[in-house]
Amino acid sequence: MPEKIEALAATGDPAVVPLLEALAEGNLYFRKSDNFVFLTKASGSNLSLVDPVSGETVGEEAKGALSKIKVNNNLRRTIRSLLGGLTLLSPDRTVRLSAADAVLKSPSAENLGLLETAIAKETDTVVRMRMETARAVSILGSDRIIDEKRQAIEMISDKIGGRDAAGILMGASATIDPALKADLDAAISRIESTQQLWDMTQNVWYGLSLGSVLLLAAIGLAITFGVMGIINMAHGEMVMLGAYSTFVVQDIIRSNAPNLFDWSLAIALPVAFLVTAIVGLAIERGVIRFLYGRPLETLLATWGISLILQQAIRSIFGPTNQEVGNPSWMSGSFPLGGMTITWNRMWIVAFSLSVFFALLFLMKKSAFGLQMRAVTQNRRMASSMGIRTPWVDAFTFALGSGIAGIAGVALSQIDNVSPNLGQSYIIDSFMVVVFGGVGNLWGTFVGALSLGILNKFLEPTVGAVLGKILVLVLIILFIQKRPRGLFALKGRAIEA
């Protein structure tokens, strides 16, 4: 029986696939009267007969008129292995690619002949490369000559790479020919060295990803702290309001226009900016403008406002996390060498950079940016030159709050949307601003990315909590040496 099955599979004819599948599943019968073989399907108390060559239904028979062709577990495993090889010859590219992946995961020396036949016929570059890799893995467990196995080790090391390749080669080390031990060890060592570099690169990426989140959360705080000297403890709640604005927009879209869901974040961005900018303007006009020059009272007032906003959100939306979905273009991930990059993180990094450079352009090239910088450097001189400093303060606070709101839109894609969302980022945001230099955008940029990368390199060694403590200690020590941060603002009033 095994020889006949292997002979059928060796033909490479895709028409053999249904026959072998039926045999493995116990659906292959022969008719007792003439020994004709049929694929069968249940049809009431009878069995419907299907011609194994044409695939056409040719009638029905009582179960007693037929006899099942029985197979044991060993034969069933052989059939499964041969089926994986047979689908390598399918006319469908997706089926061939899946078959190559299946052989790669469960290599078998029996599939080598079919793999080589399929490789010779394959015209698609991607599928061919996958088949050649599967062939190399299968060769390691075969009785092929040493030179072929040596070439297979090199291909596994070069084409698969990473932990998967190291696992395959380590698994083969117990049964490999002693003459190949040195080649195997060298390949494993090379893979591990390369993987260490990729792991370091992955940590840098994680650090940049975390840094971009910190940049989004801190950039609005940097301009309000720098221009107005306000310690705004409600800044985290602006981030939280932006995230809830995203939730509301998505909820409305789900109910009324589900086909627009992929555009939900684009719609949520201006909504979140306007909502939080208006709330920020109201806070500045209603509370903060009466407290300039009194930093302790400002800190206490904004802390009280943050508690009010948190409780208001709890009363409206409840204390539990709210679901904010990922649009299709932010879902999933893609490999890049020996690391994996998720689409949502990549888009957040790109979005953070876009916000940063847009704000930088506003500060450097617009009349409002010029007035803002003038007030930052010398408030009294700016006022004497006709700049309405109270309104600059008000619109600066609104702008900072609006930027925090669009930060909330981004954070809703990677964090839980809850009334406490802002509390997770407010301390880190202040650390970024102080470390980079109060009111300096480039300082905020460098500070956010530096702290993000430092955190991600410390976490694997000392843990997340102790890593944050060490970062805080390092910032305190740094501020002792440079009280104005990395990039200190310059101006007569500041230096005085």
First-last Cα distance: 96 Å
CATH class of the largest domain: Mainly Alpha
- The poorly predicted ranges are 491-496
Strand order in space, largest sheet: 4-3-2-1-5
Query: What is the CATH architecture annotation of the largest domain?
Result: Orthogonal Bundle
* Gross geometry: elongated
Major sheet size, sense and barrel closure: 5 strands, antiparallel
How much of the sequence lies in strands comes to 5-15%
Structural class: alpha+beta
Q: State the helical fraction.
A: 55-70%
| Order of helical and strand elements | HHEEEEEHHHHHHHHHHEEHHHHHHHH
Instruction: Please tell me the overall pLDDT.
Output: 81
Number of strands: 7
Structure description:
- The chain folds into three domains: 27-67; 75-176, no CATH class; 199-495, ABC transporter involved in vitamin B12 uptake, BtuC.
- It has helices spanning 2-10, 16-25, 73-86, 93-105, 112-121, 125-140, 146-160, 162-172, 181-228, 235-256, 264-286, 295-317, 343-365, 367-377, 379-384, 389-411, 423-436, 441-462, 464-481, 492-495, and strands at 28-31, 37-43, 46-50, 57-62, 66-68, 333-336, 339-342.
- It has a five-stranded antiparallel beta sheet with strand order 4-3-2-1-5. The protein has a two-stranded antiparallel ribbon with strand order 6-7.
- Helix 11 runs antiparallel to helix 16 and helix 13 packs antiparallel against helix 16 (389-411).
- A hairpin with a 5-residue loop joins strand 1 and strand 2.
- The chain contains 20 helices and seven strands.
- The longest helix has 48 residues, at 181-228.
- The chain has 496 residues and is of the alpha+beta class.
